[in-house]
Amino acid sequence: MAFEDEWQQSKAAAAARLGESMQLNGVPNYDPADPRRGGNSRTDMGAGPGTEDYVVFDDHLGRIGHDAFLLFNDMRAAGKHARKETEAAATSLKSDGFTMGGAIAEVNEVWERQVKTLMQACAHISNHLDYTLESNKAQDELIETDMKAIKASKINDYFT
């Protein structure tokens, strides 16, 4: 079979699969156990049946932020547990004339940079989610206050 023929067959098969599963401006039937249908197999974090909006609950954001904070703290200690021994081994090997000592030192430096990068990412996630929770709370309070200030429409006075 020629490449063009095989390519056309593959495109047609993909289009057929896409046509069967594509749904615009809506969601498939809600299934809390199926992530492809709005649910989550571990914990149902979906918005529920019949909703199309993305919904995130404060407790979910709080859990993710807390996990990022815990990971940050764990990484601070665990990421450096072999630093002194590695530096000592690299120095010893270098002084004995082994080129491997320099390579070990370089690997150790790269490792430290990677750990710092991951720690920064965890801190960023944790801080961002803390900000998001506070920001959403403030917005909800503002909306609630604004809604309380709205008076009932005068149009009802004309229908007596």
Explained architecture:
By secondary structure, the protein is mainly α. The chain has a domain at about 55-145. About 65% of the residues lie in helices and about 0% in strands. It is built from four helices and no strands. It has helices at about 5-20, 60-80, 85-95, 100-150. Helix 2 (about 60-80) packs antiparallel against helix 4 (about 100-150) and helix 3 (about 85-95) packs antiparallel against helix 4 (about 100-150).
What's the short story on this structure?
This is AG1 protein. The chain has 160 residues and is an all-alpha fold. The protein has helices at residues 3-21, 58-78, 83-95, 100-149.
Features:
mainly alpha; 160 residues; single chain; 4 helices
Low-confidence parts, pLDDT < 50 over ≥5 residues? 41-49
**N-to-C SSE series?**
HHHH
Helix content: 55-70%
Number of strands: 0
Mean pLDDT: 77
- Spatial separation of the terminal alpha carbons: 80 Å
Helix count?
Answer: 4
- Name the beta content range: under 5%
Write down the Rg: 28 Å
Using the alpha-carbon principal axes, give the shape. flat
Structural class label: mainly alpha
- Major sheet details: none
Write the layout of secondary structure elements.
Blueprint: H1 3-21, H2 58-78, H3 83-95, H4 100-149
Helix pairs in contact: 2-4, 3-4
